[in-house]
Design a protein that fits this description.
Helices cover 36% and strands 25% of the residues. The chain has 118 residues and is an alpha/beta fold. It folds into 2 domains: 32 residues, no CATH class; 76 residues, Rossmann fold (3-Layer(aba) Sandwich).
Length: 118
């Protein structure tokens, strides 16, 4: 979209910008909704541990994240990995990237350690 188009929509009351000095900023959600590409209200919760011995910790992370996002999103994807954090080809991580690339989620929630990060 051109700057002139955004200014016209602002003037017509179709979009409401956030003004920072003389600049106008638009929320991505507002722009997508306006052009008919509304993002889903979905989140992916991602938990990872390094070994099978840490399975209890993996489940604790998932439960913590479930409670943290409860009621905030209409859909929650649970993604888990039991693998080294240094490996970039983790099955769960690749699924997470795919969810983001295909715009099926609007946020990712992870713990470190037991703090929620979006």
């Amino acid at each position: 979209m051109s700057v002139q188009t955004l200014r016209r929509w602002d003037k017509e009351g179709k979009l409401k910008p956030v003004r920072i000095g003389k600049e106008r900023r638009y929320r991505e959600e507002d722009l997508l909704k306006f052009i008919g590409e509304d993002r889903p209200n979905a989140v992916a919760i991602y938990a990872r541990v390094s070994s099978h011995d840490q399975r209890k910790d993996l489940e604790a992370q998932i439960e913590f994240l479930r409670r943290a996002v409860a009621g905030s999103f209409s859909q929650v994807y649970e993604v888990r990995d039991i693998a080294s954090g240094l490996k970039g080809n983790r099955k769960g991580l690749l699924k997470l990237i795919d969810l983001a690339k295909t715009r099926k989620i609007r946020a990712v929630a992870v713990t470190y350690p037991y703090k929620i990060w979006f």
